[in-house]
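FORM 12-B: Structure-to-Sequence Request
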């Protein structure tokens, strides 16, 4: 089994925001959070947090926005 993203405990996608949408949350976890480095290294939330130390609460793992656009919109 692949390792889980180091951010999972505080990530609302993993445990909070989507708790009422189990199918969606399960899909994200399978595709990103629980898929080892190849999974979370594609997650926009993970990448934004690595780049800035924080992440907008409503950002989705598969956001269509570029990392650069997301970071600019945070400032
Ligand atoms: S992979 Fe992304 S969505 Fe999943 S826990 Fe990590 S930062 Fe959150």
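FORM 12-B RESPONSE
SEQUENCE OUT:
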């Amino acid at each position: 089994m692949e390792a889980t993203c180091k951010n999972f405990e505080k990530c609302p996608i993993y445990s909070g925001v989507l708790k009422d949408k189990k199918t969606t949350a399960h899909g994200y976890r399978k595709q990103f959070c629980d898929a080892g480095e190849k999974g979370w290294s594609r997650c926009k939330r993970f990448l934004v947090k690595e780049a800035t130390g924080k992440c907008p609460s409503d950002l989705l793992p598969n956001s269509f926005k570029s990392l650069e656009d997301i970071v600019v919109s945070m400032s």
